[in-house]
Amino acid sequence: xxxxxKLILSMMTWAKVSEADLxxxxxIRTEFGEDLSWEYLCYVREHPVFWxxxxxxxxxxxxxLQDQETVRNFAEKTGASLTVMKGGEHWFHTEEQVAFLxxxxxxxTGTVRDRLD
Length: 117
Prior knowledge:
Oligomer: single chain
Strand order of the largest sheet: 1-2
Structural class: alpha+beta
Organism: [Clostridium] aminophilum
Radius of gyration: 17 Å
Number of helices: 5
Protein name: Alpha/beta hydrolase family protein
Largest sheet: 2 strands, antiparallel
Order of helices and strands: HHEEHEHEH
Distance between the termini: 26 Å
């Protein structure tokens, strides 16, 4: 997750919760199972991410939690490399996605990931 504030604000939009609502209620349970927290939103705003290590990002084009422009901006700002898997999701779980992940990891690290299955 490269922009937590943006994700929280998106989740608030999905749940039809305003900042005033969240500030007043402090914690709101959403219909999609996530809790929204005023304290956490404030923490995220007060503690922006500063990235200082070389990073490679693998992103799925169908990620519904973080849009591609946000990830691309983060990569450009931090100097990270970005690989986008067409059809990939936030969680790489299909056979095709896991195979793509394995090839990507091997190309980036020179090692093969231990399979869990």
